[in-house]
Design goal:
Layout: H1 2-10, H2 20-34, H3 38-51, H4 56-69, H5 76-80, H6 82-92, H7 96-106, H8 109-121, H9 125-138, H10 143-155, H11 159-170, H12 177-190, H13 193-206, H14 210-222, H15 226-236, H16 243-255, H17 259-272, H18 277-292
Helix pairs in contact: 1-4, 2-3, 3-4, 6-7, 7-8, 8-9, 8-10, 9-10, 10-11, 11-12, 12-13, 12-14, 13-14, 14-15, 14-16, 15-16, 16-17, 17-18
């Protein structure tokens, strides 16, 4: 929770714009905070204070960091906002109604933000969208609101809105691998293959992980680079055996008229998840075709 709350505070609208050097130090400190490396973050906060000793926002951020690094001190937000304190108590006890009602009574930025998070985590994207938008109206420069809203737009399949919102988030956090990956996925859903490839490559340059490599393989498939996509998917399948990996392996096979292997991979994909009706239909078509032969 401490890391969760600190991320919001760190990415809030802070007056760190005196010069490019302080902006760079702030970006570095922010990235350290995101990964929980608070001691390193404090070092760069101190560098800013050497240049801007009277910057009140940075002094407050340093105090917050020091609080979070102390395991005996409660969360900054819950000690300064009684409604949030009550809401987190309800959440701890599993009382969702109490949590939601208490947050709604606050009607401030944090209340709206956490209500949006609540609905997003419940996959209630329409309500989440409403509360993220209210939160943004109350605090337009709070970066995390844009990341959450972008995910909500994607959940609603409003992919162009998702792209625009992730782009807004990236103006605040230019080195966010997750934002580039999420925008790559939205671009892919819109058929913007070149943009999707550019974004996923940026994400992987910042941090390479299996989820991003899978998305890169999907981009390669949609570019028609089936051999490259299959090679990457085969490597990934050694570490993750998910429906999506086998689905895209099968799609590569199917695109190259290798129906036997396509059927085998689709079969594995369906065993792992039978919710993809289009995949099941393709599987049945291939099976029928092979049975006739």
């Amino acid at each position: 929770m401490k890391r969760f709350i600190l991320l919001f505070l760190t990415l809030s609208c802070l007056s760190v714009s005196a010069n490019e050097l302080t902006e760079d130090y702030f970006d570095i400190a922010t990235n350290y905070c995101i990964y929980g490396k608070y001691e390193q973050a404090v070092k760069y906060i101190d560098k800013i204070l050497q240049i801007e000793p009277d910057n009140v926002d940075i002094k407050e951020l340093k105090n917050t960091l020091l609080r979070v690094m102390n395991p005996n001190i409660e969360s900054y937000l819950t000690t300064t906002n009684s409604n949030l304190n009550k809401a987190f108590a309800y959440k701890k006890n599993g009382d969702k109604a109490g949590q939601l009602n208490t947050l709604a009574a606050g009607n401030d930025f944090w209340a709206n933000y956490f209500i949006a998070e609540y609905f997003k985590n419940d996959d209630d994207f329409e309500n989440a969208k409403t509360y993220y938008q209210r939160a943004i109206t109350l605090k337009p420069n709070h970066a995390q609101s844009y990341l959450g809203l972008g995910q909500v737009y994607a959940g609603l399949k409003e992919f162009q809105n998702a792209i625009d919102t992730y782009t807004k988030y990236l103006t605040y956090n230019k080195e966010s691998d997750i934002a580039y990956a999420l925008r790559a996925d939205a671009n892919l859903n819109m058929g913007y293959i070149f943009e999707a490839e550019s974004d996923i490559k940026k994400a992987i340059q910042i941090e390479e992980n299996i989820a991003y490599l899978l998305l890169e393989a999907k981009v390669l498939y949609h570019k028609g680079h089936y051999d490259e996509a299959r090679q990457m998917l085969n490597l990934l399948s050694r570490n993750i055996q998910t429906s999506e990996v086998y689905k895209y392996l099968g799609m590569c096979d199917y695109a190259q008229n290798d129906y036997v292997n396509a059927l085998m991979n689709f079969d594995k994909a369906i065993i792992l998840s039978d919710e993809d009706k289009e995949l099941i239909s393709t599987y049945n078509d291939i099976k029928t075709m092979l049975d006739k032969k």
